[in-house]
């Protein structure tokens, strides 16, 4: 950002690319969006609530109250009729926008000081031998809570390591959590969106992993 804060980070984890968008804040690592090359992506409102969630099957758009505004399925990845995607454009903040045109055309744009950068994090998911993408995992209430607490513990341990490494500095407050922790947090929220759980439990798990 013009402020000097990190805006967009693209990393590789194994054979997967991950694009992370952070908020323009000096002392936090608030995640505004996370895009994975395996077809899973999530965008968040400024308060941390889920805005858009996408998987290899399709996606959904939520309002700030948590109600579903629209839902779609990617073409050719589900049998029978499917709900098509109408192009979506959202502004995460005044510098970063996201345009969703198709499964292989998910554009993250960054504009500042008259210059622009674009990243296409869309992908074409390869279907399995049976002609269908792998089915999503289904977990119960207890399993989801355990996974959320595990991510929270990993976040706290990372902060402890930062304090130990920089005991007399606030530099550790600006350090980005490990990519695998961010990825696990997003995966848990995706599982919550697919699971048959209450809104209260969903909100509790979301607050735990985004703390």
Automatic annotation (TrEMBL):
Signal peptide stretch: none
Origin superkingdom: Eukaryota
UniProt xrefs under InterPro entries: FAM194_C
Coiled coil stretches, renumbered: none
Residues in FAM194 C-terminal domain copies: 1-174
Protein source organism: Piprites chloris
Name the record gives this protein: ERIP6 protein
């Amino acid at each position: 950002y013009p402020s000097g804060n990190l805006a967009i980070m693209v990393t590789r984890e194994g054979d997967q690319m991950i694009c992370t968008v952070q908020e323009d804040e000096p002392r936090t690592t608030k995640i505004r969006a996370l895009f994975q090359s395996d077809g899973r992506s999530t965008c968040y409102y400024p308060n941390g609530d889920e805005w858009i969630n996408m998987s290899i099957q399709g996606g959904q758009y939520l309002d700030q109250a948590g109600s579903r505004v629209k839902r779609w399925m990617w073409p050719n990845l589900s049998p029978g009729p499917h709900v098509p995607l109408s192009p979506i454009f959202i502004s995460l903040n005044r510098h970063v926008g996201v345009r969703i045109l198709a499964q292989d055309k998910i554009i993250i744009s960054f504009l500042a000081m008259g210059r622009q950068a674009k990243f296409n994090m869309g992908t074409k998911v390869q279907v399995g031998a049976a002609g269908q993408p792998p089915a999503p995992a289904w977990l119960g209430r207890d399993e989801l809570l355990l996974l959320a607490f595990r991510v929270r513990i990993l976040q706290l341990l990372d902060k402890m390591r930062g304090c130990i490494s920089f005991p007399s500095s606030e530099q550790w407050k600006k350090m980005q959590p490990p990519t695998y922790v961010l990825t696990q947090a997003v995966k848990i929220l995706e599982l919550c969106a697919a699971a048959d759980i209450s809104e209260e439990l969903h909100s509790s798990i979301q607050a735990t992993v985004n703390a």
